[in-house]
Design brief:
The chain has 151 residues and is mostly helical. It has 6 helices and 3 strands. Strand 2 and strand 3 form a beta hairpin.
Length: 151
């Protein structure tokens, strides 16, 4: 297998392994009634003062319409609440509940451990981490450019 095939194989398998691991590890116990997509919406909302639907949809790269269905389910399952903005009563702010904050924290820790594992694997070669970051930025730019072409 040449270098291009090897790199493609690694990236494709890594993508699917991350999704599978997130599903197996994050979506169980208290959080078994949501999907990985729901967990990513919770992550997009974040622990702060809340966000409106437009900003969450933009972070997720989806339409407000497709986000609405997921958001309705997250409200029903007590992960998020909708509140009217005090400054502009027309605006609805989405906030995490205590349960949503616990899910957010579990997801954050999962990603922190994933990054720590990558850094530890590269720790022996001080020049490796900047090179890997550069490569991954290039891959991310490719995906971002591909996404922009679709819009």
């Amino acid at each position: 297998m040449d270098t291009r095939e090897t790199l493609n194989d690694i990236l494709v398998n890594l993508f699917f392994e991350i999704l599978d691991l997130e599903e197996r590890e994050l979506i169980k116990g208290e959080f078994k009634n949501i999907s990985v997509n729901d967990m990513h919406i919770i992550d997009a909302i974040g622990p702060c003062e809340g966000k409106n639907m437009s900003s969450i949809a933009k972070i997720q790269g989806v339409t407000i319409g497709s986000l609405s269905t997921s958001m309705n389910n997250l409200v029903k399952k007590s992960y998020v609440v909708r509140e009217r903005s005090e400054e502009d009563r027309r605006m609805v702010i989405i906030k995490l509940t205590d349960k949503g904050l616990r899910a957010y924290e579990k997801h954050r820790i999962f990603h922190e451990q994933m990054v720590d594992a990558a850094i530890q694997a590269l720790a022996e070669d001080e020049n490796a981490l900047p090179k890997v970051v550069k490569v991954l930025k290039g891959v991310a730019e490719f995906f971002h450019g591909f996404k922009m072409e679709e819009e």
